[in-house]
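Q: Could you predict the 3D structure of Protein SDA1?
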Amino acid sequence: MASAPLLPEPLTAAGRSSEKISLPTLQSKMKCDPEGYEFELILIYRQFHSSIDLFKMQGDASFGSMSGVGADSSVVKDLADRALFLAHVAPFYPKHLSQFWSELAEFLGSNARSLPSGLRCHVTQALILLINRKMADLRETIALFMNLQTLGDRTLKKLAFSHVIHSIRRMNKKHKNESLNRGLQNILFPLLQNEEESKAKRSLVTLCELHRRKVWFDERTANAICTACFHPSSRIMIAALSFLLDYEKIVDASDSDESSSEDESTKLTPQAVISKEAIYKAHHKGTIASKKKKKAKLQRAMRSMKRQQRMSSERSSLNHYSPLNHLKDAQGFAEKLFSRLQNCNERFEVKMMILKVVARTIGLHRLILLNFYPFIMKYVQPHQRDVTTLLAAAVQACHDMIPPDAVEPLFKQIVNHFVHDRSRPESIAVGLNVVREICLRMPLLMTEDLLQDLVLYKKSHEKAVSVAARALMSLFREVCPSMLVKKDRGRSSDPKARPKAYGEVSVAEDVPDADLLQEDVGDISENDDIDSDGSLDHGIDNMHDEPLSDGSDENDDIENEANELSSDDDAAGSLNEHEADDSTSDEEDAVASSTDDDDVNGDSENDDEENKSDSEEEDHEEADAHSGSPRNGTENKTYKSLKRKASDFDSQLIDGDTSLRALKKLAGSKLGEAPSELGGDGILSNEDFKRIKELKAKKEAKVALTKHGLLGKGSNAKSSGFKVPDSSQLSIKRVDPTKLEAHLKQKLSKEERLECVRAGREERGKYQSRAAVKQKKTGGLSNRQKEHKKAMPLAAKRARVARSRQEKKKKNKGGKQFRGKKAWK
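A: Sure. Here are the predicted structure tokens for Protein SDA1:
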């Protein structure tokens, strides 16, 4: 019984050959033929019971050794092997081993502390295997696994903790199993309030991990974690406070849920970029099989891009989430925790943690806790340790629902202790930044004299101080420009802006951001006015070239002109380009003035002006004919056509006047109906809401571009440079202490500057001339070099030789005057 292999006697009784079979071999055979090895299963199950009895007898004999040293090593090994063996074959014998998991759980629960470490881990692995095979329920064993984590065995603690986390996560992977989750929570929540510190600590760690992995991302879990702040043990309280404070940092960092999970086999790949060339090749290049592969690859890339976009959007939406959002009684939680802060004797770091949690709760839920601000005042000193963290908590606890009188002493103390001429530049910058953040939430605290004194620090030679003062000035340019001196007001969007009085609430009378839609409609109407003016000019100009229709065709003219109203301004612009003479422009102005006049006397005045303009045209033509100045053919044609039409112009003008009047009425009615179509009955359509969303996005993009200096110059760019955030947005975000600090950039020494220069030249290659680069060129010869080496045809060679001979002969002939022999030779 002490050896792992089976004895030959039982196998011979079963009708098989007399040979020894090891447990792994028997395990594989039993999985292939469960019914044929039923007798062997019963035999090993009996051996397991006898091993447990023998182990208990040895434990009682060596009662003095609580660590199980007195137990025989062979008994321990047999017990561990048979427990794992039965756990592996349990799914194939559900009738025989239906209660096997309860025996293991009972054995672990009663003898866990006296078992050796190896046997404890093996029996725990067997029980985990049965739960994963759904032979046991997690609700009946989770209390046992929580107790196993408190035994002090690191390997066992890690094994039990990972099993609980992965089992609950796997359970809620496809959909949330609320009934099962509620049962498990009813077991873990009472453990959190247990007076035994080890059990409460393991329960808190388990709940925090499940909440961080977004498995139990509900109000009950968040409230249970928050109530751990009131545990009698300071270690449990510190763990709960640190989780509440660092949760936003955990969310901002890369989520380790995918990387640490053993169930997740796929890892996130870098985001693929789908080019137009890849899309074209997938649809138009290659064979049918290659196209199919390319299309499948494109689909995979698109799915991965959508998954990454979805995950990034979810992560960005949870950037400012905190478990404190789910508090059912936020006021009671803050008051109870603040009373513990006042009475606790913990070290300074623990007090700061409690202070930050109370401030975060006050700002997040907009609570009123008036005793909190006098308590902070005794810590507000420039020499205080972690003063920026303390000031960030003070800023976080300010909102517009608090009476300004309660915060005014704290506000004055910050100004008096940090912002004065004898203070260091770092302290002045921190003080100005804190004043700006507090005034952003409670602008009623600032007075006119104090603001003007603080703004004078913009002339400071210290960069951090001047930047902080200018930031304060830019804030009050939008909040209340009248409190600033006239030269400091700038060009604000609303010169008459003022902060809301305490308790004042702005009630929304219409749809939010509906004014953007009205402004957009106003811009459209102005464009339509411009188009209508251009079309009117177009119609007036056409009166010179084309005869107007009779009264019977008046409706057709009105319809044609109305269609021109909705067209672009190209017609009016093209006609304006063809106006080349002063006489024609005067004539068109006269005609336009006559058509715009509604009185009867306007017609007679128009006749006189037309006669004058005609006579002036004739005089100009005669002068040009005598002087011989050139004229364009098109201009002469227009002048001749105008002279021909001057006789019957009166009758045409009357008809044109009536048609233009009707056209004006039609255009005016259309422009008047445009705003009423948005919501005459106060109801907006889905298209209107989509348009509001687009206009809001454009406005926010404009503000962002202006903030970074990417928008063009002009009054619009200056007016929309800074946007005061809403109070709800300020309460959601956590105040970062590093943003309140003064970031002073010290001047670099010569050696540091040279190091920066050399670091920038690392990727740059060594300087060389173009000739050297060409000589080191790789990749073959150039076209010019190939032409030099190219073999010439035979006819070209002969022609080249003949041409060179002729050139030599010509040179010899023309160069010498004397052809005879020289005498001195």
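Q: Anything worth pointing out?
A: The mean pLDDT is 74.
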